[in-house]
């Protein structure tokens, strides 16, 4: 499999481990999902990703998610159901790690595509705001 260079804004298929599941002692995610790379640490080889999900935000938690505009979902190859970027938790891992997964229908690729710059900057801005409020939970794998 030909792995892409990890860069901020790249959406990869990843076995995301939710923070709550980690607290329960799980070490594998329930399913593979698209995740956007938000930080790449060249010195450590680690990347930080946020999950993309179809689950509607819980009441009172809309500020912890960002809806993916349909044109962005289409551009990066996500399905046309409503997608949300969960901004309140991240997974951090050494690239490429054991949890990257091939795309359904394309076993030679692990990446969907790049998030448009304007949308990516909104993701980063919103995460930075949540970090300042100490509302982002991190799972290191």
Specify the structural class: alpha+beta
Secondary-structure element order, N to C: EHEEEHEEEHE
SS summary, helix count: 3
CATH architecture: Roll
Q: Class, according to the CATH hierarchy?
A: Mainly Beta
The rough form would be described as globular
Helix content: 10-25%
Distance between the termini: 22 Å
Strand percentage lies at: 25-35%
Unreliable segments of 5+ consecutive residues = none
Main sheet? Answer: 8 strands, mixed
- How many domains? 1
Structure description:
By secondary structure, this protein is an alpha+beta fold. The protein has a single domain (10-140), classed as SH3 type barrels (Roll), CATH 2.30.30. It is built from three helices and eight strands, in the order βαβββαβββαβ. It has helices spanning 19-23, 70-76, 117-132, and strands spanning 10-14, 33-41, 46-53, 65-67, 84-86, 89-94, 111-114, 137-140. Strands 1, 2, 3, 4, 5, 6, 7 and 8 form an eight-stranded mixed beta sheet that branches. The model has no long low-confidence stretch (mean pLDDT 96).
Task: Give a quick precis of the structure.
This protein is an alpha+beta fold and 141 residues long. The protein is built from 3 helices and 8 strands; from the N terminus they run βαβββαβββαβ.
Descriptive terms for the model:
8 strands; 141 residues; eight-stranded mixed beta sheet; 3 helices; 20% helix; single chain
